[in-house]
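Need residues for this backbone.
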C-alpha cells in the first residue's frame, strides 16, 4: 500500500468514525445514515471515554 493510498483510506475511515456534531472520532463505525450522529448527540446516552479520541484543539493562530 502506498502512502497516498493509506492517507485516502484513513480519510475515508475518519468520515465514517467521526460524529458531525461533536467532532469526536470513535473507534467504531457510527450509524450516520440512520441517526446522523453518535448516540450521545442523538439521545444523550453517555459515551465511554475509552471508545473515542478527544476532540483536537484548533490552532491558536498567534504570531508569536
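Answer:
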Amino acid at each position: 500500500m502506498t502512502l497516498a493510498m493509506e492517507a485516502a483510506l484513513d480519510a475515508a475511515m475518519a468520515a465514517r468514525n467521526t460524529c458531525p456534531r461533536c467532532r469526536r472520532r470513535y473507534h467504531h463505525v457510527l450509524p450516520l445514515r440512520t441517526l446522523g450522529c453518535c448516540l450521545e448527540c442523538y439521545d444523550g446516552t453517555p459515551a465511554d471515554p475509552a471508545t473515542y479520541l478527544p476532540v483536537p484543539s484548533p490552532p491558536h493562530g498567534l504570531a508569536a
